[in-house]
Specification:
single chain; alpha/beta; Aspartate Aminotransferase, domain 2; Aspartate Aminotransferase, domain 1; 7-stranded mixed β-sheet; 12 helices; 13 strands; globular; binds pyridoxal-5'-phosphate
C-alpha cells in the first residue's frame, strides 16, 4: 500500500511535469514505468485483498464492504442441493443437463462445443498450451491473468495484431468496459473472455463460437454472484474444446456446481430482473462518486471505473470507512468500484459525503 502510494505520487508528478518539458519527461517517465512495471509484475491483478486491508486499517473483517471485485452483490438464490450432488461422483446426466441449459441460455451455435470448467480461470490458465508458443496480442490494459498464462507457456506479447498467432479480448473489458466486434478477431487462435458479458447479452460475440480457432469464456461467478461455486464455461472450436477437456481430466466441476448452474441457467426471469437492478445501481454509484469529484469512465454494470486525482489516496480514504476498492499499478488515476449490496449503500454514501 505504502509502495503503491509512493509510486502513484511519482507518476502523477511526472505526468504533471510533462506539461513543462514534454520530451525529457516522456523519456524519464517511460524508464520509470518500465522499472516499476517490472517490480509490479509479481503483483496479481485481482480484486479481493480485504484481509490485508483490515489488517492495515483495522475493523472486523466481516464488517468490511468489499467493492474491489465485479461480483454481483445479490447472488442467485441457490436453493436446496440434493444429497446426491454432494455424495456421488457427478454423472453424465448431471453434466449434460448443465450443458443443455448453458447452450440454450447463451444461444450457442450448433457447430460449437461446450465444456463446463472450474471458473473461467481454468481455461485462461491452460488455453495457451493449445498451440505452439509464438506471439500473442492481448487487448490491454485488461485482466492480467491472460498475459500471465501466455507468458508462463512461453508466448511472446506483440502489440501488432497482424503478426499475432493468438489473441485475447475481454469483452466487455475489465476494467474500462471497452467492447469489441467480430472485425477485431483476426488471429488464428482467438479467445473472447465474456466473463462480464451477461449484463449485456445483446453484445455477446457468441455467434463467433463456431469459427475455427475461437474460444468464448463464460464465468458463473460474476453475474450470478457465485464466485465461490467455481463454475465457468469454454465454448467454441470442437477440436480445441476436446483438448481442453483432456487437459482438465474427469469431473472438473463439482456436483453442487452442476446442480446450481443448471438451475440458474434455466431461470431467464431472474437474469432479466438482475440486469435491470444492476443498471439502476450502477447509475446510482456513478452519480454518488461523480458528486464526490470523480469522473466516471465506464466499466460494466457490475463494476464502475472512475478517474480521480490520486487513486491510492481515494482508496485510503474509503479504507478508513472500511470499504475496499480497486486501484491499478499501471494507472495512478483509476479507481474501480463494484456495486454495494442493498444494505451497504448507507455506509458507502456516508463515506463519500
Ligand atoms: C476478465 C476476467 N475473466 C475471468 C476472471 C475469472 O473468473 P472466474 O471467477 O470465473 O474464474 C476474472 C476475475 O476477476 C476476470 O476479471
Amino acid at each position: 500500500m505504502v509502495i503503491l502510494s509512493a509510486y502513484n505520487q511519482l507518476l502523477i508528478v511526472m505526468q504533471n511535469s510533462a506539461l513543462s518539458n514534454p520530451e525529457k519527461s516522456a523519456v524519464l517517465s517511460q524508464q520509470f514505468r518500465n522499472r516499476v512495471d517490472h517490480l509490479f509484475k509479481t503483483i496479481q491483478d485481482h480484486g479481493g485483498g480485504v484481509d490485508k486491508a483490515a489488517a492495515e486499517f483495522g475493523g472486523n473483517r466481516a464488517n468490511w464492504i468489499d467493492l474491489s471485485t465485479g461480483i454481483n452483490p445479490v447472488p442467485y438464490p441457490v436453493g436446496d442441493i440434493s444429497p446426491d450432488a454432494w455424495h456421488a461422483l457427478p454423472d453424465h446426466a448431471a453434466q449434460s443437463g448443465l450443458l443443455r441449459a448453458a447452450r440454450a441460455f447463451w444461444r450457442v451455435p450448433e457447430g460449437a462445443a461446450i465444456l463446463a470448467t472450474p471458473g473461467a480461470s481454468a481455461p485462461i490458465a491452460i488455453a495457451p498450451r493449445l498451440a505452439k508458443a509464438r506471439s500473442v496480442h492481448i487487448a490491454a490494459p485488461t485482466y492480467n491473468e491472460h498475459a500471465a498464462a501466455f507468458k508462463a507457456a512461453g508466448w511472446r506479447m506483440t502489440p501488432h495484431i497482424a503478426e499475432a498467432h493468438a489473441q485475447v479480448v475481454v469483452h466487455p473489458n475489465n476494467p474500462d468496459g471497452r467492447m469489441f466486434t467480430s472485425d477485431d478477431l483476426q488471429a488464428p487462435l482467438r479467445i473472447i473472455d465474456e466473463s462480464f458479458c451477461d449484463v449485456m447479452p445483446e453484445a455477446s460475440l457468441m455467434d463467433q463460437a463456431d469459427v475455427s480457432g475461437t474460444l468464448v469464456l463464460k464465468s458463473f461467478g460474476k453475474f450470478w454472484g457465485l464466485a465461490g461455486v467455481r463454475l465457468g464455461f469454454v465454448i467454441g472450436d470442437p477440436l480445441l474444446i476436446a483438448q481442453l477437456d483432456q487437459m482438465l481430466g474427469p469431473w472438473p466441476v463439482s456436483g453442487p456446481a452442476l446442480e446450481i448452474g443448471a438451475r440458474a441457467l434455466t431461470d431467464p426471469e431472474w437474469a432479466a430482473q438482475t440486469r435491470i437492478r444492476l443498471a439502476t445501481d450502477a447509475a446510482r454509484l456513478d452519480r454518488l462518486v461523480q458528486n464526490a469529484g470523480a469522473m466516471p469512465l465506464g466499466g460494466t454494470t457490475l463494476f464502475r471505473l472512475f478517474e480521480v486525482p490520486d487513486a491510492t489516496e481515494w482508496q485510503t480514504r474509503l479504507a478508513r470507512h472500511h470499504i475496499w476498492s480497486r486501484v491499478f499499478p499501471y494507472n495512478p488515476r483509476w479507481l474501480r468500484l463494484g456495486l454495494p449490496a442493498p444494505d451497504q449503500w448507507d455506509r458507502v454514501e456516508g463515506a463519500f459525503a
